[in-house]
Amino acid sequence: MITVYRHPVEAAARGLVPVSELIHDVVVEQLASLMGMDPETVDPAYGRFRPL
């Protein structure tokens, strides 16, 4: 089970990244960690909205 807490995600987004995209990345990171893989391997769209 993966639990994502709303307030820390909203604080991390700070309006720079859509919250839905940050949640996507968090879930991909957690799945990748559980499977022993890189996040980019699990989902090639990982990190596409990261600010430069």
Which features characterize this protein?
single chain, mainly alpha, 3 helices, 56% helix, 52 residues
Overall mean confidence score, pLDDT: 89
Distance between the termini: 31 Å
**Strand count:** 0
Work out the strand percent.
under 5%
Shape, please?
flat
Largest sheet: none
**What class would the helix/strand composition place it in?**
mainly alpha
Description:
There is one protein chain. Helix content is 56%, strand content 0%. The chain is mainly alpha-helical. The longest helix is centred in the middle third of the chain and has 17 residues, at 19-35.
Q: Which helices and strands occur, and which strands form pairs?
A:
Blueprint: H1 6-13, H2 19-35, H3 39-42
Short synopsis of the structure:
With 52 residues, the protein is mostly helical.
